[in-house]
Amino acid sequence: MTGAEVLVETTGPVARVVLNRPHARNALNLPTCLALREAFERLDAEPGTRVVLVEGNGPTFCAGADLKERSGKDAAWVRGRRQASFAAYEAIERCSKPVVALLHGAVVGSGGEIAMSCDFAVATSSASFRFPEPHWGTVGATQRLQRVIGPRRAKELLFTNRVMTAAEALRVGLVTRLVEPEELATTGAELAARIAEAPELAITLTKQAVDLGTETDLDRGIRIEMAAIERNLAEGGSRAEVDTIAGKAADQDQEA
Predict the structure, then answer these.
(1) Which Gene Ontology BP annotations are present (predicted)?
(2) 12, 14, 180, 238: most buried, per Cβ within 10 A?
(3) In this predicted structure, what is the pLDDT of residue 8?
(4) CA nearest 165: which of 121, 128, 132?
């Protein structure tokens, strides 16, 4: 547990990070931003943790930024609060462990930023998505959103403040899978267990190679992958890789 706003529960190789302000529909305030950053920095350094699931307590994943918190605050405070949210998203994004968002209910503004900072997201079929920042008189979601769904779709959502359904979110790549509400927890547990089955170093280097590859062209991306392969071999992955491949080959023979 990192504090009242964010709960961290670890079972074996799987950690659950839970937004825990159900009375405020998990709206993101300054203490939550600080707790999220602390939680992910700690989990990143935790050798026993292999996978992180991000969830929301209550019927809403996250209703966006807590606007009530800003009442009476000056520009300097608002600026510092925004920097704290950016630091929280970055801590999620930079975590070396696979991070999966489990989305339900309303996913608004900052909730979407949290989800997009994760490696991928699973949502319930009844989830909804909205990016109201311009209509709230501020600026936000202009960078991750366009990289996930494209600039034209991002502009349309930001300019209009319309609600995106879960089906549309799946279609445009904001989420990777839809499940029924009662299946979300089970699906998250199954995904985490499946990821944890893979050799840890291979998963870590795969995540790193994909992330770095998005920042360059294919030729340099292949070089990044080759460097990851060399590191995997050099750091003791050779024996594990051979054993794993041998096991998979045996499985293929049985399936054939």
Answers:
(1) fatty acid beta-oxidation
(2) 14
(3) 97
(4) 128
**CA–CA gap between residue 199 and residue 44 (Å, rounded):** 17
Query: What local confidence, expressed as pLDDT, does residue 1 receive?
Result: 42
Is residue 41 annotated as part of the catalytic site, yes or no?
no
Three-state DSSP at 67 gives helix
Q: Are strands 14-19 and 6-11 parallel, antiparallel or unpaired?
A: antiparallel
Kindly report the number of other CB atoms within 10 A of residue 231's CB atom.
15
pLDDT, position 239:
58
Please list, in sequence order, all residues whose beta carbon lies within 8 angstroms of the beta carbon of residue 17, skipping any fewer than 6 positions away. Answer: 6, 7, 8, 36, 39, 40, 43, 52, 53, 54, 55
Residues 150 and 26 in one domain: yes
Q: At 73, which CATH number?
A: 3.90.226.10
* pTM of the entire predicted model: 0.91
Q: Which of 133, 168, 182, 241 is catalytic?
A: 133
55 is catalytic: no
Positive or negative, the CA dihedral 105, 36, 160, 155 is negative
Are 137 and 103 in a shared domain? Answer: yes
Burial degree of 49 (CB within 10 A; 0-12, 13-18, 19+): buried
In angstroms, the CA 169 to CA 108 distance is 13
| CATH number for 239 | 1.10.12
Judged by phi (left if over 0) then psi (alpha if -120 to 50, else beta), residue 122 lies in beta
pLDDT along the chain (256 residues), means of 10: 81 98 96 97 96 98 94 93 97 97 98 98 98 95 97 98 98 98 98 96 95 94 94 74 56 58
Give me the catalytic one of 46, 113, 190, 197.
113
